[in-house]
## 1
Amino acid sequence: MNTKLLFLGMLLAPGLALAGTPINETRSVDAGARIDISNVKGSVTVSAWDKNEVGITGSLGEGAKRLAIEGGGGSLSVRVEGPDRKGMLSWGSDSSMQETILNLKVPRGASLEVGVVSAEVAVSELSGGQVQVDSVSGRIRVSAVNSPRLRLESVSGDVEFDGKAEDSSIETVSGDVTARGVSGRTRLETVSGKLQIVASAPLKQTEASSVSGDIEISGGLDKGGRIEIETMSGDVRLGLPGNLSASIEAESFSGTLRSDFGTVQKPEHGPGSSLRVKVGDGDGEISLDSFSGDVTIRRE
């Protein structure tokens, strides 16, 4: 996983708030501007409005050096800077920082990139721009967002998405993932967290993988679409519509395999079970592979 921590850059004097003071700033930007936000600890809340401006309110935590606001027009950076430190990756000095609260209003069509360490992130009501959020331990919530490209990554925080995304990628190590509204190309990955997808439209290309976390997907499959699920020890539950048209291949080495489509085959000797069935015209492809987890395919 490539989790970005965006706290590097030149220290410029214009556009800053001193530690321990309230934040109340406004900057003019283009309607489709790119907005970069970074925070160490606390929270980042971003919502949309119909103005070509970025409004920033909140409070800067004690111990932070400053809030640097740089750029304008097509690109704006809002960055919480920690105390001076000797090395680029010397994060020890950040432990003395108190929480910084950032509340931003941005143009509805803006593209957004947020990087945090230990801060919760909430994004809502954006439409048309790309959205990317990278977090180490904070919770990520993205709602009422319509984006052509969505990227959400967290190490230990949970991730929730409820909106529309043509191309989405969500990754965690131990956090749970809940994605509602995805329909186009979707990729979900976790080590030990639980993955749940509820599609709002037929899925076109969906990949979900985990080591020990459970995977649950509910939704239809577009003509020519593909669903691919892999897990080592997590359980898998796949809910499909009765009018499904797809070829299904499922296999579990030592877990239990159940399906409302076709007949599960078990070897005469030894563990394991498998399923290979063509449903309808077989327009799409569905592949499920588990080593020790149970696999359940249900008709909904």
## 2
Amino acid sequence: MINAIWGVREVPFKREPNQLLKQQQTIFDIIQIHAKQGGFSVVLGQPGVGKTVLREHIEKLDTTRESTVVSCSRTMHTYRQIVRQLADAFKLDCTDKTIEKELINAAFSQVKAHKTLYILIDEAHLLEIAALRKLRLLFERFPKNHNLVLLGQPELLHALSLTANQDIKSRITYSAHIKPLNDDDLQAFIIRELEQAKMGINTFDENAMALIIRSSEGNLRLCGNLCLASLIEAARETQKTVTITHVNQVLVQPHWRSHEQLIKQQVT
């Protein structure tokens, strides 16, 4: 529908991002530096601020000659299941009894091939500390040319800050907190998405743009979802300019309402 109304091939806010925002790019660059001498990195942020985009860009390093990237996302699993994911990524055929030794050998093989190893664990705040401790002991036996990167919500660092977990926290070589975007950054993100989709930067009128930015509260994912939904509302009316009316048609949907607003609506 959007393609037909605006005459574009790519739909903005839906395509795979090909450019990191400034704070994401800084983190990406530093993670690569730490990987050269053995790193343990922690990247924190609330849902929707850009951790997934950052992870996807690190995963793209796997397509280069110099890097191997192993990404684990099912972090509610046990230590044994996570190392099995690692073994699958290395294409290892081994038993549970020999899996740790085979993983270490595979890591050294990467170094001999002059490759840097990145091990990404997404949603790491869901990982049990006992499993994380075992992983830390395993990765200490890996060669120096690797970086273990934990991506999770801020409560991950709170858990690591407990006295009982200082053995893990003290080994962190780099940490970063992806913060919500300010209004100017959100507007720049929206304009960039429109330009790359070859749509006019005035597709959202001034009032619509202001309401989207205010309602997104610095959250990159919410901003993208709200922009896309507003475009759909405008397309339904065969309008090429998104107005505040179209944005409000999205914001009245239940999932955009706060818990207090939903309760109040049910009472009235």
## 3
Amino acid sequence: MDLKEYFKRIGFTGLYDKADLPTLCTIHKLHVMTVPFENLSIHCGERNTVDLKVIYKKIVLDHRGGWCCENNLLFSWVLREMGYKFTMLGSKVFNKVTNEFSLMDTHLINLVEIDSKPYIADVSFGLTYQIWEPLELIAGKDQPQAPGVFRLLNDGERWTLEKTGRKPLIQNEAFAKCSLVNKLLTKTTYSFFLTPRDIDHFLEASEYLQTSPESLFTQKSICSLQTPTGFRTLIGCIYSEVTFNPQKDVDLYDMRKIPDSEIETVLKEKFNITLGSKLTPVNN
């Protein structure tokens, strides 16, 4: 495993002799702009793993993406190699359908300490929820970024991440009522405690997420990548190109259905992904 190969993968060409906040912000943003959040392996008859060497090969050498236990575990290795002081944490994802948090920690994030200040680094939530740069761990503070205004709320020992975004404006009338677009302006993302975790803590969650019929990740094939002007997604056969327009306080959604014969081309051209096995697009 070679840190320089990771930097090459994300396009980082700067200096990294100091574990400071500007450098962390740079690599965090580059990661979400170049490495997709995706679960395509489990819809190609493959398995996701928490083996760091396997994840490194998949994301860095094979130019794939991954979900949180892959992207954020790889990012924790990057933090370690660069000399940052960090702690892996587990978080419970909020389900907008049931209006509840998940029972187990299904999402891995990293807490990074710089000059005695803690920050949340998360390069793998994807879609409209993705932070582009680390968030300062401070309660109630609005932290504006291109996707919207993020804030961390504190209730005793529990922290909760939420985001206030802009109104989604769907360009194609056929998708006006599409359930893939969350029209709530303020969205709860996940909650977490500051309890240090190792990767074994996520083994049960990783198994559940890729095998249970109740898991979002078995119900939908997802590929998402942030762009300088917004983000793009492929969920099942539905492709969305989203452009942020803060001047008009809207996010523009250009959505269309992709024929099966064009899925591989879209993955290559829009996400720079080439799959080794046949994908079965799913959107239940």
## 4
Amino acid sequence: MAYLKTLFIFMVCFASQVFGSPLWKEYFSVQVREGKTDFQQKVEIDMAKQQTYLHVPAHNDLQETETFSDIKEGYSILCYKEDGYCILRKVEDTGFGDIDGLKKGMENVQLNGGEMNANTAMVVHQYLTVNPVPIIDLSFLKNDAITFLGGRPLHNSTTYKLPPNAKFLADSSVDKRKQKRAVDIQPSSYFICNSMPEYIWGYTTNTGGEHITVCGRDNYNHICLQIHDAQHTLMKYLCCPGVYVLSKCICMSHTQGIIG
């Protein structure tokens, strides 16, 4: 039996070397501590197909999410289980673009007990706008992505980098109860300013959070960063100068993209 096992491993490695493509798929189960909450996150990495899958259970007022990424095709699909819809993202806007670094990072986590502490991880805030109209033509997706969607609507999204001088609403979040696309947030009544109105940013509290570890490409993997990706729905408001209160502003964009 030991001989057969050794032979099998040799044959897999030999085939990988001959044909020049990796032939393995790895599964990781990671225990995550976020605040005072512990939960189990599942990660799958398919090196042959260059695809990843991540499942995050409901925790800390966040609903259950799952993410499928196809690195070859350049897209990532994030689905909200409770709300029943998914969003399409560019894979470079997520933490899954470097599949080699992700594989090394998750193996590193597994070797060190399979635990991650979000409280000490580097937090990356991702501000998203989502088109409220679902994509009709899904012919650009591969079969694996179609299977993953399972009939759920898919919406286009944009990851937006806020300017360093961005001004925010005073309460820092549009609505702490919202965890979705915020399409039902209504503009306040119209108002008159003494001078020209200005744009103010607003965003929801976390709509989702993913925990990964990515190692550098050096041979010794000296740099392995634990990353907490936190997603927010981003909106833009028109307010009187110096006014940073939601009730005194008009929402100029919900999920249809950034104005200006």
